[in-house]
Amino acid sequence: MGKIEDDEAMARLEASLYSAGRPLTIEELIRASGTESRTKTLALMTNLVKKTKSVFRAIEVASLPDGSYVFQLKPEFNTVIRKYASNPLLPTATLKTLSYIAYMQPVSSKRLVEVRGSGVYMHLKLLQQLDYIEHQNVGRLKIYNTTEKFQKYFGIQGDKDLLKQKLFTKVRNPSQVTVSQESLPAEPLTPSQ
User: Fold this and answer.
1) Is 128 left (phi over 0), alpha (psi -120 to 50) or beta?
2) Which CATH number goes with the domain that contains 108?
3) 135/115 Cα distance (integer angstroms)
4) What's the domain count of the chain?
5) pLDDT band for position 14 (50/70/90)?
6) Could you read off the pLDDT of 161-182 as tens digits, one per residue?
7) 59, containing H or E segment
């Protein structure tokens, strides 16, 4: 691949990461780059990660544990920009419900109503439309869990115990807290933290 073609492939990678608004797998990035080469695409992504680190202070291209890449705001800037975000993905109450489901999963609809109130039904409907949660019917109860899409969007991969640990350490200072099964994270999740 020549220099112009490398530049074009790099531009395509930048454009796809920026416009996706979610992590992209290496297979998606290979298609986006047009290189049809895993090795070439990985080399271009390595260069893109280095380039963003040297050029930008608040945004980054990050490699996630599952091998996907995401264009995101660096986590330390989330609180700074919160007041400037014009259209949050979800209302705060719905984010708190999502946080509770992520932390306590599997969790029953009965428990969600007890903890979050009857407004939780509207939250659940929206979260299911966005494919962040799923449920199974167990008798008359619905048991809720987060989906793979939720994990990818919020940059949290792994088993449920690891997920709980990551959620907990992102919202609290671990040296000041003892973990309780009834704990609810103080702050809602923010994308790609």
Assistant:
1) alpha
2) 1.10.10.10
3) 18
4) 2
5) very high
6) 666 666 555 544 444 433 333 3
7) strand 59-63
